[in-house]
Amino acid sequence: MAADIASRAVQATSLAKLAPCAASATSAATQDTCAQTFINSWVPKAYRRPLAAGEADALLALEKGVTSGDTFSSGLAAVIEAVLQSPDFLYRPEFGVADATQPTLRRPTGDEMATRLSYLFWGSPPDDALRTAAASGELVTSEGILKNAKRLLDGDKAHGIVKFFFDSLLPITSLTDQTRDVVKYPNFSPQMGAYMRTETEKFLDNQIFVENGSWPSVFTADYTFVNEPLAKFYGMSGVTGTAFQKAPLDPTQRRGLLTQGAIMTGTTVTNSTNPVLRGSFILNKLMCMNISLPSDPAVLALVAVPVDVTGATARDRYTAHSKQAVCQGCHRLIDPVGFALENYDAVGQYRTTENNVTIDASGKLPQAATVVSGAVQLAQQLADSDLAQQCFAQHWVEYGYGRSLSNAPEDLCLQEKVNTAFKASGYNVKQLLLDLTQTTAFQYLPAQE
After folding, report:
1. What is the per-residue pLDDT for 299?
2. End position of a domain, from candidates 40, 73, 90
3. Rounded to the nearest 5 degrees, what angle is found at the Cα of 183, between the Cα atoms of 177 and 184?
4. Packing angle of the helix pair 325-339, 314-322 (nearest 10 deg)
5. Same domain for 143 and 184?
6. Which residues pair with 372 in a beta bridge?
7. What distance in Å separates the CA atoms of residue 42 and residue 1, rounded to the nearest whole number?
8. Looking at residues 405-423, what average pLDDT do you find?
9. Are 244 and 227 in contact (CB under 8 A)?
10. Are 143 and 71 within one domain?
11. Of 345, 209, 206, 195, which Cα lies nearest the Cα of 267?
């Protein structure tokens, strides 16, 4: 892969951008000067730090050795190929420096902190402004870190990271692979699945970056983004064209993220709805309750819905299997959540009956005091749930810090700090991302060498 990338990088058009001096480097002297310029400007960006003594000389010797037996562009390609295989490029090493204020910890160097910030908000190496901030010493203080975090969060690249985060959290990336019976669902197709994913991504981007919204408001928003085909699929009127546009929702049928077709379809894998899958998604992914399938094969066989269980509605079918004593412990938590979503069929279209029987969409979250009727009210319970807000913050901590949290005292302290700040901000999503940079866990390294 490195060889292929390097070969393409030294083609005329690409090389003119990467090393403008290459076109006029026709003698050994001018080629040496151009190679030195390229190495000193490009390699530090690839390594995300200044070059150490001798590194530039070694790469220049590599270039000269290859150029002498081939061409100058081949010599530059050899440098690129070598850098792309270097651990300094492939990994993000952090050594840190001693800090007098925190003798049991080490502080990341300016360049290491620049890398932490850039990958958190942009998923890419630091830009020139961030590298300048690192060199100036600005990234050794909480204030300097926050200042640069705000700039990165305001950049266009931050939208891509938020999109990537939700693509990983929500069941929306395989919507184009979903198949349904064409007789039962003639309007569903891989293209409709793609439209659903776009709806969710545009909605979340708007809610977070345009509306400056909170995580609870994501569940209660009274609008979505649809184009004409998706609007017709939902039964919405007044939307024309292929471009996605903001459109109001019928508050009796839909509200916020939870009722979108992407979520309802993504948590269904067959031609019939599965309240257990839908309920498990909410409890595990949106509330971090981590209810897992039983490990005992005998118990697992009991959990599966027997093929001979019949019933007009999903509630009838799944209530039968969850009455088994060995299943009740988990299903008394899971099933009421999934039952509240039964007004949406296996492709997310709204319905009031199944097999000509009126659907009972009553249910509730495990900690909720009252039973609700339908997904709109369930979404409000999620918006009101402290556990749902804390779970969302935990997902961002684990994503942003690149590790799973444990029950160790330092991790429990970290979670409490982040949760307190998140609540104080009114559960504002953008503020949560900024607050991630203000913890000891983000600003320091363990003390070991």
Report:
1. 63
2. 90
3. 80
4. 150
5. no
6. 363
7. 19
8. 96
9. yes
10. no
11. 345
Q: Which amino acid is at 110?
A: G
Residue ranges in 70-189 assigned as alpha helix (H): 72-84, 87-90, 110-121, 128-136, 142-153, 157-169
> Phi/psi zone of residue 48: left (φ > 0), alpha (ψ -120 to 50 degrees), beta?
left
Paired tokens of 94: 């952090």
**Residue 181: pLDDT over 90:** yes
Q: pLDDT for 104-113, tens place per residue?
A: 899 999 999 9
Please say whether the beta carbons of 230 and 193 come within 8 A: no
User: pTM, whole model, 2 decimals?
Assistant: 0.91
CA nearest to 148, candidates 174, 117, 175: 117
- CA 278, CA 98: separation in Å to the nearest integer? 49
> What pLDDT does 96 receive?
94
- Asked if residue 394 is part of any domain, the answer here is no
* Rg value, the chain, Cα: 27
Query: How many residues are listed for the chain in this entry?
Result: 449
Cα torsion 427, 155, 440, 95: sign = positive
CB 215 within 8 A of CB 201: no
Count of domains observed in the chain: 3
**For residue 15, is it within any domain?**
yes
Neighbours of 410 (CB within 10 A): 12
Phi, psi of 438, rounded to the nearest 5 degrees? -110, 15
Residues 374 and 412 in one domain: no
Identify the burial level of 425 via C-beta atoms within 10 angstroms of its C-beta, where 0-12 means exposed, 13-18 middle and 19 or more buried.
Answer: middle
Query: pLDDT digits over 335-375, tens only?
Result: 999 999 999 999 999 999 999 999 999 999 998 999 999 99
* 59-to-62, 144, 251 alpha-carbon distances in Å: 5, 34, 63
> 83: closest CA among 48, 33, 127, 132?
48
| DSSP symbols for 54-78 | THHHHHHHHHHHHHHHS-HHHHHHH
Beta carbons of 401 and 440 less than 8 angstroms apart:
no
The closest of 376, 383, 310, 386 to 344, measured between CA atoms, is 376
